[in-house]
Structure to design on (84 residues):
């Protein structure tokens, strides 16, 4: 889980498998050049408003697509039965 505005540095852990439990070795490597600061909430009101508008447009487009897709299915059924 990420906490907003905290600095993180990814690490890779290499675990030797296939060896007996007593000989199992674990090696960890970190990469300082991949450090990042997590941002989980936007403090800027304009950014939040923009993201809200984008999410709403995506939701509206999905609803429209589903509606059009449903109407096409109905038309295909009508055309199929009309053909018989």
């Amino acid at each position: 889980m990420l906490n907003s505005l905290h600095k993180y540095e990814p690490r890779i852990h290499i675990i030797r498998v296939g060896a007996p439990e007593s000989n199992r070795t674990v090696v960890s490597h970190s990469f300082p050049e991949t450090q990042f600061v997590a941002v989980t909430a936007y403090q800027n009101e304009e950014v939040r408003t923009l993201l809200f508008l984008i999410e709403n447009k995506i939701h509206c487009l999905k609803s429209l697509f589903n509606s059009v897709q449903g109407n096409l299915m109905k038309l295909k059924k009508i055309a199929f039965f009309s053909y018989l």
